[in-house]
C-alpha cells in the first residue's frame, strides 16, 4: 500500500465523518422543528376542546368553606331549636349533674326532682330552658328567653323496639356539620366500614337516594312533612335496605333492615332491591351531633332493635356496644378529619355533587340558610 492511498483513505474518512456530523445536525434541527410544530398543534387542539366543551357545573367554595367550621354565632338561627344534650337514663339519683360543652360554652345540667332539670352556664351563670321528651333531656340555647317551639316528639324508637344502648362520646375531633354529612352519606359504607357494619357488603353498580319527589310504592318511606317547611328531609337508600332522616338542628335518624339476626355485629347482609320494611329484623339508630367547640362535636348515640330483647340483660353489654360504636366512628374519622383539614386550608369539599349526595346537600343548604348566608351561596346544582 502506498502512502498516497493511505492519505486518500484518511481524507475520505474525514469527509465522511464531517458529512455525518452535518447530517446529524440537520436531522436534529428538523426533529426540533417537527416537535415544536406538534406541540403547537396539541395546544391548538386543547384550546379548541375548551371552546367547544362546556365546563362541568359545580358548587362554589362558599357553599361549604372554612366559615362553616366556626361555632354558630349568637344571632344564628341554628340556635333557635331544642338540642338533646343528655339521655334521661344517665341520671340515677336526684341532684345528679353532668358537665358538657355546647356552642363553645361549658354548662352544668342538674336533675332536681322527677323530670325537672336546670342547665346553667359555668361562665356567665346564664340558665337555659329545659325539657324532657322521648327519654332525652333537651335545652333551648336560642336568644329568646322562652322557647318558640314545642318539644319535638320524633326521637323515640318505633313501636315494638327495645333500646339496647345509649352512648355518649364527649369529644369527636371534627366539626358537627361534617359529621352530619358523613352520617347522611351511605355511599361510602362498602369502602370505609369494611371492618364493622358493612363487612361483607358487595359494591353495588349504583347507589340511589330516593327522596320524596322520586318516591315509589315500596320505597320504605315514613312521611314526616316537607323539608323546607319543618327542617326534615328523608328518603331511602337503594339498593341498601335503609331509610334515613335529617332532623333539625343536628340529628340523623336511620332505620336499617337486617337479613339475619347476627348482622349487627358481623356486617349487615342484604339482598339488592329489598327495602327496610321487607326485612325480618331491624335496627334503629339516632345520632345527635352537638356543636361543642370549633372543629369539635359531642355525639349522643341511641341504638334500638326489634328482636333479641334478652340481649339488654347481658352483663357488660353496653361496653360491647360502646366498642362497636367507637370502631365505626374511627372508620368515619379517616375521611372526615381529612375533609376538615382541606376546608381549613381553603379547599372546595362540595365541588361536584351527584344524585346520592342529595340528603347531605339538603342539610348543608338548610345550615347555610340558618346561618344567614347569601341566597346564591345556598344554591344546589347536581350533576
From TrEMBL:
SUPFAM superfamilies (UniProt xref): Bet v1-like (SSF55961)
State the name under which the record lists this protein: Pheophorbide a oxygenase
Q: Which UniProt keywords apply?
A: Transit peptide
Note whether Transit peptide occurs among the keywords.
yes
The superkingdom listed in its UniProt entry is Eukaryota
Positions of the Pheophorbide a oxygenase domain: 246-350
Query: Per the record, GO CC terms?
Result: cytoplasm
Bias regions of kind Low complexity — which residues? Answer: 8-17, 26-39
Q: Where is the region Disordered?
A: 1-39
Coiled-coil positions are none
PANTHER family in UniProt: CHLOROPHYLLIDE A OXYGENASE, CHLOROPLASTIC, IRON-SULFUR DOMAIN CONTAINING PROTEIN
- The answer to keyword Transit peptide applying to this record is yes
Listed GO MF terms? chlorophyllide a oxygenase activity
Pfam families registered for this protein in UniProt = PaO
Amino acid at each position: 500500500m502506498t502512502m498516497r492511498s493511505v492519505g486518500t483513505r484518511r481524507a475520505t474518512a474525514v469527509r465522511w465523518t464531517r458529512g455525518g456530523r452535518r447530517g446529524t445536525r440537520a436531522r436534529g434541527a428538523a426533529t426540533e422543528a417537527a416537535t415544536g410544530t406538534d406541540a403547537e398543534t396539541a395546544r391548538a387542539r386543547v384550546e379548541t376542546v375548551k371552546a367547544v366543551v362546556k365546563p362541568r357545573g359545580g358548587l362554589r367554595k362558599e357553599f361549604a368553606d372554612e366559615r362553616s367550621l366556626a361555632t354558630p354565632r349568637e344571632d344564628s338561627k341554628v340556635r333557635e331549636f331544642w338540642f338533646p344534650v343528655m339521655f334521661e337514663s344517665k341520671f340515677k339519683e336526684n341532684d345528679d349533674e353532668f358537665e358538657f360543652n355546647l356552642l363553645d360554652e361549658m354548662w352544668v345540667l342538674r336533675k332536681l326532682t322527677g323530670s325537672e332539670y336546670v342547665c346553667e352556664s359555668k361562665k356567665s351563670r346564664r340558665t337555659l330552658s329545659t325539657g324532657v321528651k322521648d327519654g332525652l333531656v333537651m335545652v333551648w340555647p336560642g336568644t329568646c328567653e322562652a322557647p318558640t317551639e314545642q318539644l319535638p316528639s320524633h326521637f323515640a324508637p318505633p313501636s315494638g323496639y327495645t333500646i339496647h344502648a345509649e352512648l355518649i362520646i364527649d369529644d369527636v375531633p371534627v366539626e358537627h356539620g361534617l359529621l352530619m354529612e358523613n352520617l347522611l352519606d351511605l355511599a361510602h359504607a362498602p369502602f370505609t366500614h369494611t371492618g364493622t357494619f358493612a363487612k361483607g357488603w358487595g359494591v353495588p353498580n349504583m347507589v340511589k337516594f330516593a327522596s320524596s319527589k322520586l318516591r315509589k310504592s315500596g320505597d320504605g318511606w315514613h312521611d314526616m312533612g316537607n323539608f323546607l317547611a319543618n327542617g326534615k328531609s328523608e328518603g331511602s337508600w337503594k339498593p341498601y335496605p335503609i331509610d334515613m332522616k335529617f332532623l333539625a338542628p343536628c340529628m340523623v335518624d336511620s332505620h336499617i333492615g337486617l337479613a339475619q339476626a347476627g348482622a349487627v355485629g358481623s356486617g349487615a347482609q342484604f339482598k339488592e332491591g329489598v327495602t327496610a320494611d321487607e326485612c325480618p329484623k331491624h335496627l334503629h339508630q339516632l345520632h345527635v351531633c352537638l356543636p361543642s367547640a370549633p372543629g369539635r362535636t359531642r355525639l349522643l348515640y341511641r341504638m334500638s332493635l326489634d328482636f333479641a330483647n334478652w340481649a339488654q340483660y347481658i352483663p357488660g353489654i353496653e361496653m360491647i356496644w360502646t366498642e362497636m360504636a367507637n370502631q365505626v366512628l374511627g372508620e368515619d374519622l379517616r375521611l372526615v378529619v381529612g375533609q376538615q383539614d382541606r376546608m381549613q386550608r381553603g379547599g372546595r369539599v362540595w365541588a361536584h355533587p351527584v344524585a346520592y349526595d342529595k340528603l347531605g346537600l339538603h342539610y348543608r343548604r338548610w345550615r347555610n340558610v340558618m346561618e344567614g348566608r347569601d341566597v346564591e351561596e345556598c344554591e344546589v346544582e347536581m350533576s
